[in-house]
């Protein structure tokens, strides 16, 4: 008997390069995350009619947009049959980079890594209400959902890490998923062309040090993932059981 092939993780869209499925990873109790329920992506404003047809075929009915107000206004979208949920997290790294440059300093790759780590630490506390809202949506219904920011790498990357960790996916596997952005995401031509290429190579990619900065803050300031989920995001034991029931395959 031929073994059934697993669905593809990355989906071939013309208008988004970083659209992918969180399914298939092994979570708590050895139960895999269900395929075709939760997707992560870069922004959806450039999707073609064919792309939109694929999303409809996948049953995607909710889009969660983590972009800041100016970002979402510049590249707005409305997709037929998909409910739009804006959970704005304003981008801070560009502003901080500009502030550094105004002091007369030439921004280095090392500066950029530090800025990105600070950004990720900010997700953990400053932006916790947005991630709490994402979990509320996932708990309200298991209708196929995509969440995204502009590049689908930082705000989206932290959100994906939280979801997978909550479902019991090991941290090294979560990191592997996070780093897939470097293989998939294609930076739009001309974006951020005023900075040196070595700096852009940091800002438009992901590094283990970025996600580690956020997870280290979760561990050291909140006592680990469990207290953080319960005390900060409002995802208590009952909610975690509900999430596992919705998004992990049933034990065989």
TrEMBL record:
Gene3D superfamilies xrefs: Protein tyrosine phosphatase superfamily
Keywords in alphabetical order: Hydrolase
InterPro entries: Prot-tyrosine_phosphatase-like, Tyr/Ser_Pase_IphP-type, Tyr_Pase_AS, Tyr_Pase_dom
A Pfam family of this chain: Y_phosphatase3
Residue ranges of domain Tyrosine specific protein phosphatases in the record: 129-191
Stored PROSITE patterns: TYR_PHOSPHATASE_1, TYR_PHOSPHATASE_2
Similarity comment text for this entry: Belongs to the protein-tyrosine phosphatase family.
Protein name per its UniProtKB record: Tyrosine-protein phosphatase
PANTHER family in UniProt: TYROSINE SPECIFIC PROTEIN PHOSPHATASES DOMAIN-CONTAINING PROTEIN, TYROSINE-PROTEIN PHOSPHATASE
GO molecular function, one term: protein tyrosine phosphatase activity
Record EC number: 3.1.3.48
């Amino acid at each position: 008997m031929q073994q059934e092939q697993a669905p593809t993780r990355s989906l071939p869209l013309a208008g988004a390069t970083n659209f992918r499925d969180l399914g298939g990873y092994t979570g708590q109790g050895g139960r895999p995350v269900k395929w075709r329920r939760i997707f992560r992506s870069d922004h959806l404003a450039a999707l073609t009619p064919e792309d939109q047809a694929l999303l409809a075929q996948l049953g995607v009915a909710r889009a969660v947009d983590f972009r800041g107000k100016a970002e979402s206004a510049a590249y707005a979208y409305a997709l037929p049959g998909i409910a739009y949920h804006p959970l704005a997290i304003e981008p801070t790294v560009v502003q901080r980079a500009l502030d550094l440059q105004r002091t007369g300093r030439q921004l280095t790759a090392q500066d950029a890594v530090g800025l990105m780590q600070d950004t990720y630490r900010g997700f953990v506390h400053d932006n916790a209400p947005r991630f709490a809202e994402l979990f509320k949506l996932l708990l309200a219904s298991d209708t196929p959902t995509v969440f995204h920011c502009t590049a689908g790498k930082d705000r989206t990357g932290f959100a994906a890490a939280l979801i997978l960790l909550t479902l019991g996916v090991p941290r090294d596997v979560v990191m592997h998923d996070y780093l897939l952005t470097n293989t998939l995401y294609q930076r739009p031509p001309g974006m951020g062309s005023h900075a040196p290429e070595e700096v852009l190579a940091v800002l438009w990619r992901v590094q283990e040090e970025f996600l580690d900065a956020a997870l280290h803050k979760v561990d050291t300031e909140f006592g680990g993932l469990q207290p953080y989920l319960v005390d900060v995001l409002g995802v208590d034991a009952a909610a975690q059981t509900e999430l596992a029931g919705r998004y992990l395959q049933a034990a065989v």
